[in-house]
Amino acid sequence: MSILINLLCILVFLLVIFIIKKTIYCINARKALLSKITSWKKLAYEE
């Protein structure tokens, strides 16, 4: 029984790490996209 609980804890831990990594990746991607959009807007205004 305790082995099952340990396995469950490990699975939950891995899932949490996976979600955190995904979230960080999404935030970084969004920041990069926003910076690209702002640079395009600057170029559009300068022309």
Report on the structure:
- The protein is 96% helix and 0% strand.
- With 47 residues, it is an all-alpha fold.
- It has one domain.
- The longest helix has 45 residues, at 2-46.
- The chain is rod-shaped and about 70 Å long.
- 0% of the residues are buried.
- The model has no long low-confidence stretch (mean pLDDT 92).
Labels describing this entry:
47 residues, 1 helix, mainly alpha
Residue stretches low in confidence (pLDDT < 50, at least 5 long) are none
The H-and-E topology, N to C, reads as H
Number of helices: 1
> What is the strand tally?
0
Tell me about the biggest sheet? none
Summarize this structure briefly:
The chain has 47 residues and is mainly alpha-helical. Helix content is 96%, strand content 0%. It is built from 1 helix and no strands.
Please outline the helices and strands.
Layout: H1 2-46
